[in-house]
Amino acid sequence: MSQPTTLSQTQSESPAPDVRWIKPRYSVSERPEAYEIRVLVPGATRETVHVSLKDSDLEVTARRSQTVDPAWKPLVQERPSGDYRLRLKLNVPVKEEAIAGKVDNGVLTVHLPLADELRPRRIEIQ
Amino acid sequence: MLKLNCLNILKLSPYLILMKLIRYDYPELPLGSGEFARWLRDAFGDSGDLRDPLASWSSGPGRNSLAIDLYESAEAYHAVVDLPGFSKNQVQVELENSVLQISCSKGGNEGEATERYSRSFSVPDGIDTAKVAAKLEDGALTVTLPKNENHKPRVVSID
Question: Would the pTM count as exceeding 0.80?
Answer without folding.
Answer: no
